[in-house]
Amino acid sequence: MFRTTATTTAALAFIAFALPAAAQSVSGTVTKVDAAQGKLTIDHGPIKNLDMDAMTMVFRAGDPAMLKGLKAGDRILFDADRVNGQITVVRLRKNS
């Protein structure tokens, strides 16, 4: 019993530290959409999982379809994370 519990505890501890921080939704305002490059510029609040302060910056769109119908001035909620070394919007929805 002890061996199983110790093994399970060790495995859970490894998973907790090995996985990247979970993305969390951040509010922002789109300032530019570059559909041809698959990028968008967002004026956003702090992004905790990336240890990033509030700023305006360019993000890669994880899925080019998320840029359809999006325009400068749109208020959004989004999740961003590092994907293949690039800061990427992985989830996005318009915020009314």
UniProtKB/TrEMBL annotation:
InterPro entries: CusF_Ec (IPR021647), CusF_sf (IPR042230). It comes from the Bacteria. Keywords: Signal. Residues 1-23 form the signal peptide. This is Cu/Ag efflux protein CusF.
